[in-house]
């Protein structure tokens, strides 16, 4: 392999790791939004139990 091929491979590896990182953060964000909505609903029920 030439030097350019190694650089291209390194960029590819970094890009894949970056995509995996973004996917993990996005999944955590979705879970956090779902948990926040659930907590908000529980707080509303506790505030107005007969509603």
Structural write-up:
This protein has one helix and no strands. The protein has a domain at 18-51. The chain has 51 residues and is an all-alpha fold.
Key traits:
single chain; 51 residues; mainly alpha; 0% strand
* Strand segment tally: 0
Strand portion: under 5%
In angstroms, what is the radius of gyration? 22 Å
What is the approximate shape?
rod-shaped
Given as residue ranges, the uncertain stretches (5+ residues, pLDDT < 50) are none
* SSE pattern: H
Taking the sheet with the most strands, its summary is: none
Number of helices: 1
Q: Mean pLDDT score, rounded?
A: 95
Distance, first to last CA: 70 Å
Task: Decide which structural class fits the backbone.
Answer: mainly alpha
- Helix percent band: over 70%
Q: State the assembly state of the protein chains.
A: single chain
Quick structural summary:
This protein has 1 helix and no strands. It has about 50 residues and is mainly α.
Secondary structure layout:
Layout: H1 3-47
